[in-house]
Amino acid sequence: MLQRPQTGIFLTFEGIDGSGKSTQARALAASLQAGGQDVVLTREPGGSTGAEAIRALLVAGDADRWSPETEILLFNAARRDHLEKTVLPALARGAVVICDRFADSTRVYQGAARASLRPLVDQLHDMVIGIEPDLTFLIDMDARAALARGLARQTGEDRFEDMGAGFQETLRTGFLDLARMAPARVQVIDGARDMAAISADVLAATRAFMVARA
Ligand code: ADP
Ligand code: TYD
Fold first, then answer.
1. CA–CA distances in Å: residue 153 to residues 145, 156, 168
2. In the chain, which end has fewer C-beta atoms inside a 10 angstrom radius, N or C?
3. How confident is the model at residue 27 (pLDDT cuts 50, 70, 90)?
4. What is the spatial distance between Cα 176 and Cα 2, in angstroms, rounded to a whole number?
5. Lowest-pLDDT range, 23-37, 86-100, 104-118?
6. What is the domain class of 9-213 according to CATH?
7. From the alpha carbon of 194, which atom of ligand 1 is closest?
8. What is the pLDDT of residues 58-104, one digit of tens each?
9. Peptide bond between residue 89 and the one before it cis (omega within 30 degrees of 0)
10. Which atom of ligand 1 is the closest one to the Cα of 195?
C-alpha cells in the first residue's frame, strides 16, 4: 500500500471532456506560483515517463481497442507509476500538487458508464492506489457545450470524446453523484461561465482550504 506523506496539498480537477479542467488547473498553478508556492502541475493518465507511455496506449485508437477490464488495469498502472514517481515525492517535499484528473475519472468513466465494473474499480483502487486528493474541483457543465469545446481542439486524443454526447451526459451524472457522496472533498464549480469567474472561485476555495489546514 502506498503511504501519503503528511506534508503537501493534493488538489485534483475533474469533469467531462472539454469542461475546462486543464485551463483551470493551469490558472490555479500560475496564481499559486505567483504567490511563491512550490507547485507541481500534472495530469492523468500521464504525469511520469512510464504513465505517459501508458497514456499513449489509452487515448488514441478505436473506441473498442481495449476490453473494459484491460482499460481499468492500464489506468491503474499509469496512476501507480505517477504517484510513485511524481505525486508522492512532490507532497513529501511540501509542494502543492495540482492534477488534471485522478481516480474519480476512473470511477466515472470506467465505473459509472458500466455499473457492473464499479466493484472492480473500487477494489483495484483500494489495493494499488489507496490515496485520495485533499480537495477536488468538479468543473460541471452541459455535455453538448463541453463536447463542442473539446472537439474544437483537434488534439488527436479523442478516443473518449468519440463515444458521443449521450456518453458524456452519463459521465456528467456520474461525477455529480460522486460529489454528493463526498461533499467534504469534492466542490462542484459551475463551468459554464467565463474563465476568470471560474478561476476566482477555484482560487478562493483553495486559499480557504490552506487557511483551514494551517
Ligand atoms: P478539459 O481539460 O476539461 O478537456 P480545456 O481546459 O482543455 O478542457 O478546455 C477545452 C476548450 O475550451 C479549450 O479550447 C479552452 O480554451 C476552452 N475553454 C476552457 N474554459 C472555458 C470557458 N470558461 N469558456 C469558454 N471556453 C473555455
Ligand atoms: P484528458 O487528457 O484529461 O482528456 P480531456 O482533456 O479531453 O478531458 O483525459 C484523456 C481521456 O481519458 C479522457 O477522455 C478521460 C479518460 N480517462 C478515463 O477514462 N479514465 C481515467 O481514469 C482517466 C484519468 C481518464
1. 13, 9, 17
2. C
3. very high
4. 28
5. 104-118
6. alpha beta
7. 23
8. 999 988 899 999 999 999 999 999 999 999 999 999 999 999 999 99
9. no
10. 23
